[in-house]
Design brief:
alpha+beta; four-stranded antiparallel beta sheet; binds S-adenosyl-L-homocysteine; disordered C terminus; eight-stranded mixed beta sheet; binds zinc ion; 19 strands
């Protein structure tokens, strides 16, 4: 949609908006209002929850618009036509056939991003194809698939190995044994690769992501085609049950949710979905009212106020999250550009040990690990520095206010 609160468009979250929401190919739409108009003039409309670019999904409906039966039927037909070419079950069957083929017959069509079966080769002869797809490659789909860099919708920025390994080591050392990966295909993949190496302790992972290409590689227990902006399972009841089973098994013990949503995303819509997940987790046995589902929410630091507004018990860690395919977001040492992306969590910061070899140290006064550039401020009584020395490029120098920073990131990401 290219719209967010920053552009004068406000998201309306209410029971009413939710129950009345029409469906686009990406599940229930969200209700928005233009906020720059006078209150009584503001006209509200439904638009796609997943796509912030009209090119990706052009769904639009005024809140009070009457939709004829014919148009409703046409819409349903259109929504069906926009679903993946195969069901998840079919993808799983295809995968089983694919791995049973001799190496020389295992071909991946890079144009279609599809593992091909021999009877389909004819249709792809003019496409770019990759042959000899090994088991090693099949275990690492995030390296095989082309990242969907389409900035406004998928914004697929994959973790650098260092960051991904740090996250997994941290998760294991903190005693977690199940990871709900929401929009973190690379972490899911690392956990599964580790599992195939039969390492102890056993860590299980489930991936929820809108990128249905992963259905080709993972079973229905391991992956759900999912929209995190409206908590929608494309695979229907069986998919949402697979999710619930994973989340709530072992009385909901030792599970952590890790999410790295597209940064252009609406914080409030994400928080609303995450609260639903927390609610489902709470239905698992023996949960006290004040118990919280442990969460790592990975997001740029300048969203701190908005995340804290939605989740007051969260705090932001100093750890800089690095990406592979994002030229601007590389780790700071050696003069490279530094990442503005951080981890928000409801776990006690003092328990989260950040790597000394990357320059993090413990602040006794704050009782948490901080970056080496951070100094304890006597006035704030905290290690508050987030921006100073963080973004040393000349272009960043003038960035003083939150909106300046957002403007800058908007330019870079094209996605706020
Ligand atoms: N750093 C992560 C990837 C983060 S990129 C990693 O390396 O694993 C954002 C991820 O969220 C992508 O995998 C993208 O496909 C997914 N995503 C984007 N929009 C989504 C949506 N509406 N619902 C669920 N997942 C979404
Ligand atoms: Zn849509």
């Amino acid at each position: 949609m290219g719209m967010s609160a920053a552009a004068g468009i406000e998201l309306i979250i209410s029971q009413e908006a939710e129950s009345g929401a029409p469906l686009c190919p990406h599940g229930p739409t969200l209700l928005f209002a233009k906020v720059n108009r006078k209150e009584h003039e503001a006209r509200r409309f439904y638009a796609c929850a997943a796509c912030r670019d009209r090119k990706d999904c052009n769904f639009f409906q005024w809140e009070d618009e009457k939709v004829s039966v014919a148009r409703q039927l046409a819409r349903e037909e259109f929504n069906r036509s926009r679903q993946p070419p195969f069901t998840h079950k079919r993808y799983v069957e295809r995968y089983q056939k694919f791995v049973s083929l001799p190496l020389a017959n295992r071909i991946f069509c890079t144009d279609c991003q599809l593992l091909l079966l021999p009877e389909e080769w004819d249709q792809h002869t003019s496409h770019h194809r990759l042959g000899d797809v090994s088991l090693h490659q099949l275990k690492r789909p995030s390296h095989l698939l082309l990242p969907l860099e389409n900035k406004k919708t998928n914004a697929q920025y994959l973790f650098a190995d260092r960051t991904c390994q740090f996250l997994l080591d941290l998760i294991i050392s903190m005693g977690f044994r199940r990871v709900l990966c929401i929009g973190t295909p690379r972490l899911h993949e690392l956990i599964r690769v580790r599992q195939s190496q039969k390492k102890e302790p056993v860590i299980k992972s489930q991936l929820l992501d809108i990128d249905f290409r992963y259905s080709q590689f993972y079973s229905e227990e391991e992956f759900c085609h999912y929209n995190m902006f409206n908590h929608y399972f494309f695979g229907g009841k069986s998919a949402s049950e697979a999710f619930q089973t994973f989340l709530c098994q072992d009385n909901g013990e030792s599970v952590i949710m890790v999410t790295d949503p597209p940064f252009g995303g609406l914080v409030e819509a994400l928080a609303h979905s995450f609260k639903k997940i927390v609610g489902i987790w709470k239905t698992s046995q023996n949960k006290a009212d004040d118990e919280e589902l442990p969460i790592f929410w990975i997001f740029p630091y300048f969203f701190e106020p908005r995340i804290l507004q939605c989740f007051p018990t969260f705090s932001m860690l100093d750890y800089q999250v690095d990406y592979d395919n994002h030229a601007l977001y590389k780790h700071g040492n050696s003069g490279r550009k530094q990442s503005p992306v951080r981890i928000f969590t409801n776990l006690p910061p003092k328990d989260i040990i950040l790597p000394a070899e990357e320059g993090y140290k413990f602040c006794l006064l704050c009782q948490r690990y901080i970056s080496s550039a951070n100094r304890h401020c006597e006035i704030c009584q905290a290690c508050t520095s987030k921006v100073s020395k963080l973004l040393p490029e000349p272009g960043w120098q003038a960035m003083e206010t939150l909106s300046d920073l957002q403007q800058m990131c908007k330019t870079i990401l094209g996605s706020l």
